[in-house]
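Lab meeting, action items carried over

1. Structure of the two-component assembly. Owner: GW. Status: complete.
Input record:
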Amino acid sequence: MAPYISIGGYSDPPRIPHLSLEVNHNELVALVGGAGSGKSNLMKCLAGIRKPVRDSIRIMGAKPGSIASRERSVFVFQNFNYAPDIYLRTQLDQRISLIRGVPSREVKDDVRDWCERMDLLDVCMNYPGKVNLSQLQLFSLAPVFLTSPSVVILDEPFRNVSASSVDAALSLILPALENAAVLALVQKSSPLLEKADRIVTI
Amino acid sequence: MNGRKTFYFKSSILLLLRTRWIGPYLLLPPMLAFMVYAEAYLSAQGVTGIYNLEQRIVLAIWNASLLLTLIAGIKSCLFFSRLWGSFWFRNSLALPASRYSGFWGPFLAALSVATIMYLLTSGAVIAALPEIGRFPWVQVLAELYVPVIWAVSVGALLGLITSGTAGSLFFATLMLLGFLTGMPSLYPSSGWLQVVVPPVGRIMTLSLVFPSGLIQAVILLTHSVIALTLGRLLYSFGIKRR
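Predicted assembly:
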């Protein structure tokens, strides 16, 4: 079976001179690098919102940015994904329904249950600016739980999660990642490192 | 697949219905009242030369269209610039939504809101008139709607290429230039200026005599199409290059 995520000969000089990496189904690979090491640029290239120097990336066999590379993938950005002026709950409903390909009324119950389980029900009817960073980070992870993606790419997913919530979030996120190819772009202190199948340092 | 092409349209509608974006339209009634009062005063003094009912109807809708064009244009510059320059928008390109709808969705949302405002405002103006008579007001309404389309289209282009404030200033200048074309002494009877300067004012003064601003409407629509085509090309270029 072809790798779900394939990076061949990627370079982002001077930060990343060369990177080749494959992530297969049911595998969690942690790509470790310090601040300013080019992780976020790589994330943008994987999401198809930045052009790599060489056209060397494939997600589910498709070029990054193509609809085939995005329809079963979840990208969790470091600076979150939410519009500042729309209620979080509304945005969650929209996003989950978009990724699942069903009308948003069909996902409302699932979103509500998830918010309740994560103790976020009270805050989900707020604008993102009214919610603290730790809660916002948990909201940005919601599509991972709620859409059963084949590919998950995370950029520093626990950086803003409060220490008291990390274990709870990890225990919830790991089962959700079991059937996916997961690439986590993290720093050395990330709690995801202990759970990774492979660690690649840049 | 469900919602792929409408994601940005729906999101933009939700954003545009916030007080910050819908609020400027509340300026319309007082501004309109002031203009109608001023024109009625000037007309009573014999300054404007507007005496008959038809001219007063066109003038009333003209006022509504002019003010709405100004507000919609400035608001569009600010909205599009903020939207397309945001982290949120850039990151949302990773969602399985149609990327091309990232241009057309917000544009159609802004145009829809401006259109509803235009219909409400001109409807209120017509309802307030003592009688409509046998005047072709549907034609006038359609003709004076063209500047609203133009404002949102130019706003989309300016929102892409510059900051909201700079875009708004440029739009207001362009609008003023276009407004001056309404004065026959300043408007050339032929030549390239007729095509280059948006005939926002001309379309309105022609309607005052008779609903005959068809050529001006076509020129203004052509400006809108050019602005949208350029905007669309720049948008494609921008999302591939980021």
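2. GW to write a short summary for the group page. Key points so far: The longest helix of chain B spans residues 53-84. Chain B touches chain A through 29 residues (CB under 8 Å).
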